[in-house]
Amino acid sequence: MSIHRLASLLAGLLTTLALMAGPVPAAHASGQHPDKSCLSDCVRRIGIVSAFGAEADILIAQTERKRTLTINGNRFTTGVLRGVPVVIVLSGVSIVNSSMVTQLMLDHFRVERLIMSGISGGVNPAHHIGDVMVPDRWAMPLEVYWHGNNSVPAPCGAPGDVGCLGLRLATRDGQPLPAYRVPTPQGPVDSGLFIRETYVLNARSAPQGEFRLDYPADPEMLQVARSISPRLERCGPKNPSLCVTAQPQLKVGGRGVSGPAFLANPDYRRYLYDTLQAETIEMETAALAHVAHANQVPYIGFRSLSDLAGGDDFTEVGAFFGSGLAEANASAVTLSFLEAWKRHRSGR
User: Fold this and answer.
1) pTM confidence score
2) What is the mean pLDDT of residues 2-22?
């Protein structure tokens, strides 16, 4: 066989093998990410999700080398923010929106870490409007088993056993957490609402998956958050005459909680504080944390307190929102964190 004929046969064989293997993914073609797909952009980035539009606008305005991609109607902005490659998106309010948009981001971008940044209600009465909370874990207490009364449910035999339904109650010291009781003029009434753990599956826990009450924030990101000292304002940039009374502070640690309900009930707020020692409540971060855990992506959440959830005095709440202080303080922490993160990673 001639050399030319052999070369022709080898070329044909290689072409056939390439066709059988299918197209080379974009990440492979760029030589950037051989072990994870990224449908639209394969640059290593921190993903930033905001539920509140005004704060996302602040972050996007300061992003350099911006590029916008619209995916299923959602606008993702890539670029460099405080020296860190980022992708920023507005999720909209609610557990389901946060989950959907976060997964969409992870599918289309090479997101190595996630930040949820926005506004929340206070649960711990020791905190003040304007404080920025950075919980070290997040839970979803409105994932519940709704029983007929506050006796421990036993649908599968033993008290507290709901396993035959594919569920698991949240426990402390081996006992289900106490169900909420509704205050009435005649005295407390059983609600039958028992907090459940949430089922989550990822490659590490497959095939059986796992149940979780808490989703821990990333320890490395928490370490950096504890090192920053952002300037938090008392008066808002839109109207400097609107100010909160106490100087806002950055507070790292404790449990944050999220749910599908906008909480304006002071008694249920006290239940969350007494039962879970919750610091803050909102409607998105625990959902992002669930998606982050399912995809094995580290995350952290920054939340600026807008009010004491279910509180009666809305005077300072108006100052907080109407002055632009809400988004200004939340974004100040996000920007300070990104600056510190760049220094931290450069020094490794």
Assistant:
1) 0.86
2) 45
